[in-house]
Amino acid sequence: MSKKLLILIWIGFGGFSLQAQTVNKPKVVIGIVIDQMRADYLNVFNKHYGNKGFNLLKNKGAWFTNCYINYLPAYTGPGHACIYTGSVPSIHGIVGNNWYDKKNASNMYCVADAKENAIGGSEIAGHISPRNLKVTTIADELRLSTNHRSRTFAISLKDRGAVLPGGHTSNASYWMDDEKGYFMTSTFYMNQLPEWVNRFNNKGLARKYLNLGWNTLSDKSKYLYAQQDENDFEGKFGDQARTSSPYNFKSMGNKYIKKTPYGNSILFDFAKQAILNEKIGQQNETDFLALSFSATDYIGHVFGPNSLEVEDTYARFDKDLASFIDFLNAQYGKDNYLLFLTADHGAANNPNYLKSKKIPAGYFFDQKEQLALNEHLEKKFGKKDLCVRLMNCQVYLNHALIDNKKQGDEIIEEIVSYYNAHDLIQMAFKSNRVNDVVMPSFLMQYYSNSYFIKRSGDVTLLFSPSVLDAYSYTGTSHGAWSAYDTHIPLLFYGRGVFSGMKSKKVFMTDIAPTIANMLGITPPNGSIGNVIIK
Fold first, then answer.
1. How far apart are CA 166 and CA 136, in angstroms?
2. HEC-encoded secondary structure of 348-377
3. Do 493 and 510 touch, CB atoms closer than 8 A?
4. CATH, residue 374
5. Could you give the CA distance from residue 1 to residue 6 in angstroms, rounded to a whole number?
6. Residues 138 and 46 in one domain
7. Residue 305, pLDDT score
8. Pair 380, 331 in one domain
9. What value does the mean pLDDT take over residues 490-496?
10. Distance between CA 254 and CA 114 in Å, rounded?
């Protein structure tokens, strides 16, 4: 064989190899996070779902049925940060929705930034930015990979649900102002709202939706929880006297839309307008649209997972999701976008509801327990208010009152002993010494993943199963290590996704590196996750 022919064959194979390695990128990546959606909702409420929403993603996409959170506590801020960074609180720094700022001796909100001001909303809602996030997101990396020709937009009813996914380079992150029910942003992103956002706000959709009231989408007899609609385990909407539907919102302010299923609907409406007006996915590079649906969380907190209201909310969400997927297909074609759907955390069953079913459960109220702890410590050490905060299942000490390291160690040992004798606590331990504690290895890893020295507390509390870190006897909350809080849905759909149900155990932190791999870009700079779609 001639040398010239060998060279031509080598070039041919080289060209084929390079062509095979070329990533055929989607026009847009769409991330959907459903706040407080438990994994089992995909099955438990399935009879309400049609064929074009959740079931389309389950049947035609990659459905990971065994996806878990791998850090604690399971809250909204850390959840969104972990999804989009592929990282954990010990690296990205978002240890809770709030934490105690030891340097300034005050609470710190996860996306608070006094340097920034409101654009298009009330001033108090505008001191917001992503600067507390210590790493990049998948959206940041996409923009970096294209020299910022790719664009990122992030939208939520909650500011943290938009700010953390959008990352540091978001072209725009929008959230809803609590006063008027308008979408707004901060000076971190822009100096004035685009005209299309003003037009959307001026439509007054929040008021129009609220005037519809809320009755079940289908006849009540078709609902799993219809027979227990009126009960003592659920909270009440606003000033309404009942815990059962139907509901009338005409006397409620526009901000109340966040706590109704229409909060999801208006977010889908806004997302569609963003796609059209910003021409998302219509450039030469892949764009990113991050959507976080918060109404499910607000409703879940009031009513709990064993409620007709939560059941109907997901029936309605499925209908809205189907409409949105139809919209995406019309805009891009069904093979030209990549979509993933997941949740930031789950939700606990109401403890009194569980007790009524003879299942052990309990309530842990932080403020009450902090008072009791401080009384105990004062008797022991003669100093008031040694515990400055009890939050995020952690005890923060007032180190200004502690004389020396030896005394600090003694106080910590006393707190650990005190809570190890507590009926509602499985165990307590010094936060930075988790490796000294005997516990299941996966829990040890969860707590190691969660410790950020500048923002975490001194002592960590591991609650017994079905003990709620609560603020009310009705409804629910979340944060625990148990599956009801850490088992979340995960579905991928669209370009590059092979359909099928996958039961292998995966984690929230696997989402961002998987998207990065599918786009052929570098994972976020704090990512610890694995690629789960090859």
1. 10
2. CCCHHHHHHCCCCCEEEEHHHHHHHHHHHH
3. no
4. 3.30.1360.150
5. 7
6. yes
7. 97
8. no
9. 96
10. 26
pLDDT digits (tens, 9 = 90+) for 445-465: 999 999 999 999 999 999 999
Q: For 117-137, what is the mean pLDDT?
A: 96
Strand arrangement of the beta sheet that strand 487-488 belongs to: 487-488, 67-68, 506-507
Q: Which of 65, 76, 286, 313 is catalytic?
A: 76
Domain assignment of residue 24, yes or no? no
Token pair belonging to 201: 């706000």
Give yes or no: residues 430 and 290 share one domain: no
Q: What is the extent of the structural domain holding 322?
A: 29-354+481-519
pLDDT in tens, 176-219: 998 889 999 999 999 999 999 999 999 999 999 999 999 999 99
Instruction: Give yes or no: residues 343 and 425 share one domain.
Output: no
Quick: pLDDT tens for 321-376. Answer: 999 999 999 999 989 999 999 999 999 999 999 999 999 999 999 999 999 999 99
471, 475, 476, 477 alpha-carbon torsion, rounded to 10° = -50
How many domains are there within the chain? 2
226: its two tokens: 């219809």
76 is known as an active-site residue: yes
How do beta strands 106-109 and 172-176 pair? Answer: unpaired
Mean of the per-residue pLDDT values of the chain: 94
Other C-beta atoms lying within 10 Å of the C-beta of residue 285: 16
For the chain, the straight-line distance linking the first and the last C-alpha, in angstroms and rounded, comes to 38
Q: Is 19 within a domain?
A: no
Rounded to 5 degrees, what are φ and ψ at 120?
85, 10
Task: Tell me what percent of the residues of the chain surpass a pLDDT of 70.
Answer: 95
